[in-house]
């Protein structure tokens, strides 16, 4: 039973990691006042770019970078349409997701059925020998550790540096930021690109570490769950981490259910993360005050200087 | 002295551009597609022929064209009513799936039934199931303020797993060599064919009925007016006594119901049984159809024909040019991108402005 618990916890961390990357990425974008509903598409494009890179004989690190760049490239399309051409952010984000699903499936046909070897697990000395938790938390691959480092970095930058203050100012009140002389559109461009890159990295984790193979549409709604996570987290990084592992736990439960002696149809267990997303959305959204208090005030609203 | 292009607001939105933009977007998608084919080492002329001419050059092709346009049109009509009211049902794919599942359950349960009641009963079941599935999102939106985009999407994934559960469990064909699919529906559970020897069937008539119905509802009824105002100026609508809750419920039930009917059309039409997947993404493609059709019934009819052609062209390109048929999804996305891009010129126009030297 304890072995199962350790295995389940370890799987939870791994399953939550792509969500951590993608949701933190979307958080950066949304903090600047931009909603990009294209997370699913950016993750898929990141996943296939990373997989193709690694399967062609390049290093895993090159794969992660390729995934990030691919996500960023898609985010650039979104940014040009919404920030320069003033297109509706919601519609453009949807288009980005639809396009990303199509593009990744098209490119991915050549890579179907192949596998790659993902990152090795790295044990942290001493900590990894803690009973139950050690094996779960401190015997992970570098990208899991990387996601936690990224969380720490983003929390620090957002709340303790001038850059973070600027980003939040642009999201709260672009007019004031513009009036003081800050380049609102440029900052939003950067935040959107950074968000896209992280979504791409989240996708890369799925295809070259978590699975590790390319399957059409393999992100399977995690992009939308990441979007829901930013709402669930009321735009706070620590809660994103918590939420991501909560969903990671539900995803891995279906694979460990048998070992834990749970006899429910795997189809019904597969619904869990999506059901849970609806439940948390309802719980968080039912109090409009909470949302209004924490959401960036200009979220989704276009800004045009002069 | 240098010049640069600058976007300038139009005093009034351009009506002409509103209609030109979708045509321009389709043209740009076409050009991009031909460039893509060229880059892939295929002759653009040949590719154009394979994609847009070959699929519809005979009667069989034309019936397939209409067969695929029908669900796209039916779903997009419902979605457009919602989009006009600023209610974003993105989960039509899930509502279609639930409609198909409900109708399929009846077809399997009453297999062998004679008479003419089974198919109408399946239609009612599909309509109700699709509407109910969207109704969940309406309830959560109006009672708890939960974002309907995310809820309808999540419900789509749940619906897909539910259908998987049905065809691999309660509704599985016991003599089907363990394949996850139901028995083949009987005669009384299938739409009659409109033209013998093709797959075009009576479910297309539902779409033909829905077009004038939605047109009247949207453009000529007081309810439609309320919904449009609710989308354009929510506060004004509420002030005028148009309830937002009513708009949310009405549009989601309508779009869900129509998507459910489209699901019945698929399983009681070309598919003829329940399978783990009952739609090649019609629910999502219909979102693009609604936008490209300018949320207007007539535009939607034209856009659904275009989108259907993209599906057929993708299949044809797979056979003739050995290209993955996922190219259809790629073109669908491109089309929407180009539409959003060209739409800028409805509200803005480009102006060449002189940037005087020396100044930054």
Q: How far is the first residue's CA from the last residue's CA of chain A?
A: 64 Å
- Average the pLDDT over all residues of chain A and give the rounded result: 92
- Count of runs of 4 or more consecutive helical residues of chain A: 14
Describe the global form of chain A: globular
Summarize the structure in words.
The complex is a heterodimer of chains A (306) and B (360). Chain A contains 14 helices and two strands; from the N terminus they run ααααβαβααααααααα. Chain A has a single domain (2-294), classed as Orthogonal Bundle (ABC transporter involved in vitamin B12 uptake, BtuC), CATH 1.10.3470. Chain A is mainly alpha-helical and 306 residues long. In chain A, strands 1-2 form a two-stranded antiparallel ribbon. Chain B has a two-stranded antiparallel sheet. Chain B has 360 residues and is mainly alpha-helical. Chain B has helices at residues 15-39, 44-53, 59-84, 92-109, 118-144, 148-167, 203-220, 222-232, 234-239, 244-271, 282-292, 297-321, 327-347; strands at 2-9, 348-355. The mean pLDDT of chain B is 93. Chain B starts with a strand and ends in a 5-residue tail after the last strand. Chain B has one domain (43-322): Orthogonal Bundle (ABC transporter involved in vitamin B12 uptake, BtuC), CATH 1.10.3470. Chain B is built from 13 helices and two strands; from the N terminus they run βαααααααααααααβ. In chain B, helix 3 (59-84) packs across helix 12, helix 5 runs antiparallel to helix 10 (244-271) and helix 12 (297-321) packs antiparallel against helix 13. Chains A and B meet through helix 4, helix 10, helix 12 and helix 13 of A and helix 5, helix 6, helix 11 and helix 13 of B.
């Amino acid at each position: 039973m304890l072995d199962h618990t350790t295995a389940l916890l370890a799987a939870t961390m791994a399953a939550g990691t792509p969500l951590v990357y993608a949701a933190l990425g979307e958080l950066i974008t949304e903090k600047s006042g931009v909603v990009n509903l294209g997370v699913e598409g950016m993750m898929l494009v990141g996943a296939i770019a990373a997989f193709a890179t690694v399967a062609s004989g390049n290093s895993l690190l090159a794969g992660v970078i390729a995934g990030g760049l691919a996500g960023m490239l898609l985010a650039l399309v979104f940014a040009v349409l919404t920030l320069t051409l003033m297109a509706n952010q919601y519609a453009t984000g949807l288009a980005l997701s639809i396009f990303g699903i199509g593009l990744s499936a098209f490119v991915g046909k050549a890579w179907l059925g192949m596998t790659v070897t993902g990152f090795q697990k790295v044990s942290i000395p001493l900590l990894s020998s803690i009973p139950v938790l050690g094996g779960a938390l401190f015997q992970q691959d570098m990208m899991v550790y990387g996601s936690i480092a990224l969380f720490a970095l983003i929390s620090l930058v957002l709340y303790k540096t001038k850059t973070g203050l600027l980003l939040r100012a642009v999201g709260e009140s672009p007019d004031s930021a513009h009036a003081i002389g800050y380049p609102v559109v440029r900052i939003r461009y950067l935040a959107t690109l950074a968000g896209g890159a992280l979504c791409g990295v989240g996708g890369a984790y799925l295809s070259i570490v978590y699975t590790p193979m390319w399957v059409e549409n393999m992100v399977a709604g995690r992009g939308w769950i990441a979007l829901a996570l930013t709402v669930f987290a009321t735009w706070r990084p620590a809660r994103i981490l918590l939420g991501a592992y909560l969903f990671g736990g539900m995803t891995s439960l279906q694979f460990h259910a048998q070992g834990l002696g749970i006899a429910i149809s795997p189809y019904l267990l597969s619904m869990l993360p999506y059901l849970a997303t609806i439940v948390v959305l309802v719980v968080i959204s039912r109090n409009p005050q909470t949302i209004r208090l924490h959401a960036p005030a200009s979220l989704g609203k276009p800004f045009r200087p002069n | 002295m240098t010049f640069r292009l600058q976007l300038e607001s139009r005093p009034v939105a351009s009506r002409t551009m509103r209609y030109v933009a979708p045509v321009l977007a389709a043209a740009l998608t076409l050009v991009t597609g031909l460039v893509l084919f060229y880059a892939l080492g295929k002759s653009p002329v040949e590719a154009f022929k394979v994609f847009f001419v070959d699929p519809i050059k005979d009667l069989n092709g034309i019936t397939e064209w209409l067969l695929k346009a029908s669900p796209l049109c039916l779903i997009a009509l419902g979605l457009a009513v919602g989009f006009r009211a600023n209610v974003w049902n993105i989960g039509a794919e899930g509502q279609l799936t639930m409609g198909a599942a409900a109708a399929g359950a009846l077809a399997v349960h009453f297999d062998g039934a004679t008479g003419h009641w089974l198919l109408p009963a399946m239609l009612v079941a599909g309509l109700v199931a699709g509407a109910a599935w969207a109704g969940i999102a309406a309830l959560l939106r109006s009672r708890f303020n939960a974002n309907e985009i995310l809820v309808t999407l999540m419900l789509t994934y749940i619906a897909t797993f539910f259908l998987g559960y049905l065809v691999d469990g309660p509704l599985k064909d016991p003599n089907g060599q363990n394949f996850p699919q139901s028995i083949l529906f009987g005669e009384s559970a299938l739409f009659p064919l409109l033209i013998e020897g093709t797959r075009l069937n009576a479910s297309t008539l539902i779409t033909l009925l829905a077009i004038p119905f939605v047109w009247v509802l949207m453009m000529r009824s007081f309810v439609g007016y309320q919904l449009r105002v609710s989308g354009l100026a929510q506060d004004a609508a509420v002030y005028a006594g148009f309830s937002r809750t009513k708009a949310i419920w009405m549009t989601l039930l309508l779009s869900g119901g129509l998507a459910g009917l489209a699901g019945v059309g698929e399983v009681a039409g070309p598919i003829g049984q329940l399978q783990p997947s009952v739609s090649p993404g019609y629910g999502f493609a219909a979102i693009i159809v609604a936008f490209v059709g300018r949320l207007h019934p007539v535009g939607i009819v034209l856009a659904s024909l275009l989108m259907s052609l993209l599906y057929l062209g993708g299949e044809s390109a797979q056979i003739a040019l050995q290209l993955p048929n996922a190219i259809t999804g790629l073109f669908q996305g491109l089309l929407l991108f180009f539409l959003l891009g060209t739409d800028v010129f409805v509200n803005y126009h480009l102006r060449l402005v002189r940037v005087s030297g020396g100044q930054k």
